[in-house]
């Protein structure tokens, strides 16, 4: 295999960071879901002059964040065997 010389504006090597096995991204999705749905619930409480919608929206946000994290992991697992 011959080594191709890079152009003047191209790097001569590419560094690919190792994949992280910790699930910090999962917590980010869950916290983001709680915050987003909490704000939506707070806005609906303000709009309808109630006080319970925000408390119903918080667990919905946690469940949606968990689902999104699992979906993201399954799509990343499917992409592991494919090359670009």
Description:
- The protein has 84 residues and is an all-alpha fold.
- It has a domain at 24-76.
- 62% of the residues lie in helices and 0% in strands.
- It is built from two helices and no strands.
- Helix 1 (24-48) runs antiparallel to helix 2 (53-79).
Secondary structure blueprint with pairings:
Elements: H1 24-48, H2 53-79
Features:
62% helix; 84 residues; 2 helices; mainly alpha
Order of helices and strands: HH
What multimeric state do the chains show?
A: single chain
Strand content is under 5%
Query: Which class best fits the helix and strand makeup?
Result: mainly alpha
Major β-sheet annotation: none
Low-confidence stretches: none
Tertiary shape: elongated
How would you summarize what this structure contains?
The protein has 84 residues and is mostly helical.
């Amino acid at each position: 295999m011959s080594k191709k010389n890079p152009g003047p504006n191209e790097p001569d090597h590419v560094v690919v960071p190792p994949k992280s096995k910790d699930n910090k991204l999962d917590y980010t999705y869950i916290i983001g879901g709680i915050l987003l749905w909490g704000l939506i619930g707070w806005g609906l409480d303000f709009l309808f002059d109630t006080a319970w919608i925000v408390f119903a929206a918080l667990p919905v946000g946690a469940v949606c964040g968990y689902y999104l994290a699992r979906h993201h992991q399954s799509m990343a697992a499917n992409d592991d065997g494919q090359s670009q």
